[in-house]
Design a protein that fits this description.
two-stranded parallel ribbon, two-stranded antiparallel sheet, 4 strands
């Protein structure tokens, strides 16, 4: 089973831009649930959640695990097959509005998970990491940073794959969940404050005249 799926088609990247789809993928990581359960957890209408689950299943990000009869109907249970990774080529061709929606959804979900982890002691484990590193680079340095981050994700995947092998041999003893967030962007530079205009000669003369006549 492939853990991550490279997105090379901008239309697929567009399909993933909906924030609810990001939440569904996050909610189904390493677990199985039905649209009914997801609708309750995400506080969203069942029909809307069911639609987005079907779309994610059609895009092969979700796998149908089982069907169970429920009150005269059949309830479907899904889990994730792969997490999406949008390639640089697809990102360049993706419309700006889709990029904004995709980033907004990802940051919202990451922030929600991180905030919940703070309250639940998720950052107390030795090795937990939070940092913000502003740097000043030239065009070549920007590309070098981008390549370093691109290379880091496959290394993270390899570490996870090797851990999975050891966990299977040890019957999942010492199993730990972790979330790694990587982000690089150009920060907004505040516009310089407008300079205060000095008064005109006539205004200064008026002020001086008032001062002399007082």
């Amino acid at each position: 089973m492939k853990r991550y799926q490279d997105i090379t088609d901008p239309s697929v990247a567009k399909a993933l831009a909906h924030p609810l789809r990001t939440q569904i993928l996050a909610a189904l990581e390493n677990r199985t649930a039905s649209p009914t359960q997801l609708a309750d957890e995400l506080d969203a209408p069942l029909g809307v959640v069911s639609y987005h689950v079907r779309r994610l299943h059609a895009l092969r990000f979700l796998k149908l695990v089982k069907r169970l009869p429920r009150r005269g109907a059949v309830e479907h249970y899904y889990t994730t097959i792969a997490g999406p990774t949008i390639t640089n080529e697809a990102w360049v061709s993706t419309p700006t509005i889709v990029k904004q929606a995709t980033i907004s959804a990802a940051l919202t979900e990451l922030g929600k998970q991180a905030s919940a982890a703070v309250g639940d002691g998720g950052f107390e484990e030795p090795g937990s990491h939070v940092s913000r590193t502003p740097v000043t680079v030239d065009a070549q340095g920007w590309q070098e940073l981008a390549r370093e981050l691109d290379a880091l994700l496959p290394r993270i995947q390899r570490i996870e794959a090797e851990s999975q092998k050891r966990l299977l041999r040890a019957d999942h003893a010492d199993e730990q969940r972790a979330t790694v967030g990587l982000i690089m962007f150009r920060p907004m530079i505040p516009a310089p404050a407008p300079k205060r205009r000095r008064g005109s000669k006539s205004a200064r003369a008026t002020r001086n005249g008032r001062a002399q006549g007082s």
